Amino acid sequence: MAEKKPLKQYLMIPGPTPIPTRILAAMNHEMIGHRGPGFSKILGEVIEGLKWAYQTKNDVMVYPCSGTGGMETAVVNTLSAGDKALFVNIGNFGERWIKIAKVYGVDVIDLKVERGKACDPKTLEAELAKDKKKEYKAVFMQQNETSTGVINDVKALAQVVQKSHPDALIEVDAVSGLLAADLKTDDWGLDVVVSGSQKAFMVPPGLAAVSMSAEAWKAYESSKLPKHYWDIKNQKKFADKGQTYTTPPESIIFGMHEALKMIQEEGMENILKRHETNKNIVRSGVRAVGCRLLADDSCASPAVTAIFPPEGIDGEKVRSEMRRFGFELAPGQSDLKGKIFRIGHLGYVDYMELVATIGALELLFNELGTKVEIGKGVKAALAEIK
Length: 386
Fold this sequence. Notes:
This protein is of the alpha/beta class. It folds into 2 domains: about 120 residues, Alpha-Beta Complex (Aspartate Aminotransferase, domain 1), CATH 3.90.1150; about 230 residues, Type I PLP-dependent aspartate aminotransferase-like (Major domain) (Aspartate Aminotransferase, domain 2, 3-Layer(aba) Sandwich), CATH 3.40.640.10. The protein contains 13 helices and 14 strands. The protein starts with 9 loop residues before the first strand and ends with a helix.
């Protein structure tokens, strides 16, 4: 007899995330002229909605690309070859920003933090103090690190930079963190912020948004790094006309237009509370079934949780076997591959989907030889729903 396949897939990864029917329906739209007034109206409303999500009055530009494209945009539009920049590196995506900067000849200082930890503001303060001549042009940091399930205290880190190096730009990778955790672009003095459509926005991959402060625009004027597709001034010239420089992925923009309506209807406070509850459900549930967590509670991500399986069980084995129950989990990356698995809980993820994930883990661990009291993890998870 053929193995029974699950009736439904539960996408429990930190991106791409599940998409609501309402957004899918909005994307199921005929193409329209991307240089015409109909598209201009939609794009203008998308940009205004993004400003709401960013909590900013700064310019926000939309690029047809992944979050990595937005990260490259941040580098090439604010720096020149030989410029000295500090990169707060708490995981795989901190490493990625460093790789991008090195390709362009930026003088990279890598502030590498132990995996599973957030950057302590005092550590950043000490590193900045070494730069006696105030040569840093920018400090790059992640809001949320998906590879380790860690959230940085961006507000505190930004305050350290502003005190020590007031002329340095503060550039933030908020691709997986925006809307999962609070991020006040203007109030915290953030100069460049990057986000991606496939995370808490609940939209398919394909759009990145990049905000630019007045100080970032000044840096653009002196930036000498090569750029064409990523030239943000060129993108702004078209955005001011309600257009994108290149042909846009209209379906995804239609989806983002609807997503921003949904997000604003829910309200920022409720969105953040929902993600915080999701985090607590997963952390309490997996702890109750005998798993250890990579990040401690002080820096735990509201977007994704990195989990060590019980002793003797490989993280990749957990992922492959969970597919039998219909659950797709995320792998460990780089040095953590096979050591951990990750559960994404951002965007369009319901509380009860997470409870079901914990229940499936209970069944699986028992199958794999680790005795788990059935229902213990589920009970702990349910206790977090208030």
